[in-house]
Amino acid sequence: MSAAPSSGAPVPTVAELEEQERRLVFRRFTHDDAWALGSLLVELAREREAPVAVDIHRAGQQLFHAALPGSTPDNDAWIARKRRVVERYGSASYLVGSRFRAKGTTFEESSRLDPDTYAAHGGSFPVTVAGVGVVGAVTVSGLPQVEDHRLVVEALERFLGE
């Protein structure tokens, strides 16, 4: 792990981020699952008084969205940009950005994608169904990027019973 963010916890490595993706896989992902996962994320965010917006998409359809106190329309724009990274790369937005940083560059410098459309910042995680692949994304925006990522991972771990 590398340097610690403001929370004091170490920043996850590329290998650790890849392990999260291998581990956090659904057997199925229904509308009801999206509601339950989104509700869990809102509950966790409320406990922390986190000023976030939460979004869950599957197959191009928004299944869940909530904007908590302190969030702004900018958070919705960040959600869309981070989600597009997951949809394009099939990996967590934080992992995609970390892979570019590990190569000594940045997503913005080297991806050749419009930064107004794509953001490889933490907070969007693929919804992967075993035997199917990536079917959507769960996204949080409003905290520093590593904290957005951690909130999503924590919710997925709880939801999947890990």
Structure commentary:
- This protein is of the alpha+beta class.
- It has one domain (14-159): Haem-degrading domain (Beta-Lactamase).
- The chain contains six helices and four strands.
- A four-stranded antiparallel beta sheet has the order 2-1-4-3.
- A hairpin with a 2-residue loop joins strand 1 (53-58) and strand 2.
- It is globular and about 40 Å long.
- The two termini are 22 Å apart.
- Residues 1-5 have low confidence and may be disordered.
What are its keywords?
162 residues; alpha+beta; Beta-Lactamase; 6 helices; disordered N terminus
List the helices and strands and how they pair.
Elements: H1 14-23, H2 31-47, E1 53-58, E2 61-67, H3 73-89, H4 93-102, H5 107-110, E3 124-129, E4 133-141, H6 145-159
Antiparallel strand pairs: 1-2, 1-4, 3-4
What fraction of residues sit in β-strands? 15-25%
Could you tell me the number of beta strands?
4
- Please state the structural category: alpha+beta
Radius of gyration: 15 Å
Helix content: 40-55%
Number of helices: 6
Estimate the global geometry from the Cα principal axes: globular
- CATH topology tier name: Beta-Lactamase
N- to C-terminal separation?
Answer: 22 Å
Number of structurally distinct domains: 1
Main sheet makeup: 4 strands, antiparallel
Strand order of the largest sheet: 2-1-4-3
Q: Output the helix-strand order.
A: HHEEHHHEEH
The CATH H-level superfamily is Haem-degrading domain
Write the CATH architecture name: 2-Layer Sandwich
Family: Belongs to the UPF0303 family.
Protein name: UPF0303 protein ABT188_19815
Organism: Streptomyces violaceorubidus
Pfam families: HbpS-like
